Amino acid sequence: MKALCLTQPGQFDFNDLPEPADPAPGQALVRIHRIGICGTDLHAYQGRQTFFTYPRVLGHELAVEVLKTGAGVSNLTPGQFCSVEPFMNCGGCPACRLGKTNCCEFMRTLGVHVDGGMTERILLPAAKLHPSGSLTLDHLAAVEPLCIGAHAWARVEPAASDSVLVIGAGPIGLAVMEAARAALVQPLVMEVSRARLAHAAWMGWKTIDGRAEAEEQIRQALGGSLPRMVFDCTGNPHSMMACFRLVAHGGALVFVGHYPGEITFQNPNFHAREISLYASRNATASDFRRVMGLLESGRIDVKPWLARPVTPEEVSGQFSIWLDPEAGIIKPMIAWPA
Ligand SMILES: [Zn+2]
Ligand SMILES: [Zn+2]
Prior knowledge:
By secondary structure, this protein is of the alpha/beta class. 28% of the residues lie in helices and 22% in strands. It has ten helices and 16 strands. It has helices at 39-46, 94-97, 137-156, 171-182, 194-202, 214-221, 237-242, 267-273, 285-296, 315-322; strands at residues 2-8, 11-16, 27-36, 61-69, 81-84, 87-88, 108-109, 121-125, 129-132, 164-167, 188-191, 206-209, 229-232, 252-255, 276-279, 333-335. Helix 8 links the parallel strand 14 (252-255) and strand 15 (276-279). Helix 3 packs across helix 4 and helix 3 (137-156) packs across helix 9 (285-296). One zinc ion binds at residues 89-90, 93, 95-96, 104-106.
């Protein structure tokens, strides 16, 4: 069975993997149909992903088809198409016991800590599969990044009356924007890439050009005030440190993007504004169910950011293009041939 393996930074090779065994109790054997690519994969490709070891089969944004189920699996039947919750949590740590499975102490994420979906078939825990009778393969693969935005949104749950600024208009920023759409909130989105700014504006969002003086533009857009809720979706330390000054007094700041280093801030500014600072990591099963319901009902959509899927053979030639935000590709996709 063929798998596309990242053998070292910058180097993909096709490997022969053994066929997965028959599903054990609670497991399902699935065929991979679509794989979305995101910042995590790009960082792994560049060798900038924390805790990443090579060789690794990437792929955590997956649309799969159930082929076979193990004993005791009641939520799935063969032939169903599913989105995959790629966050394999331990179930026993304090976070898991609180229901915060997204930040399990012993997290094993598919395509990061363990081999992911850039292959033909894999075995997965049935509980991590979320079937849909109506969503397309592209939509199913886009559920996971949408859930990252939905989870971040749920950390602070802005009200319709709250002013919201989303920093970064890549897939994660756009996922937060879709969560805002579902909540009937019209956020501002700030971005430094010209192509992404244009894309966000084309989608109908109110944009702030992050290359220019941000605070002035934001105050202008918000009638003189600063936003009550700020979501930083850049993973860029300069942005993450600067945005403490863009939060209104009494407001909240959510770090959705992840930066593997130190973030510092001026305590007098943080204190004077009494900023509530939140981390947001991964997503939970309930985020998956909520996002899939929103997609199925058409209340949110991702079609405007999905690129034409490429074949596994085309992947290694495409990665350097996908790394460039100015290339204007928001969500690259791989179609794995059946
Ligand atoms: Zn991702
Ligand atoms: Zn755990």
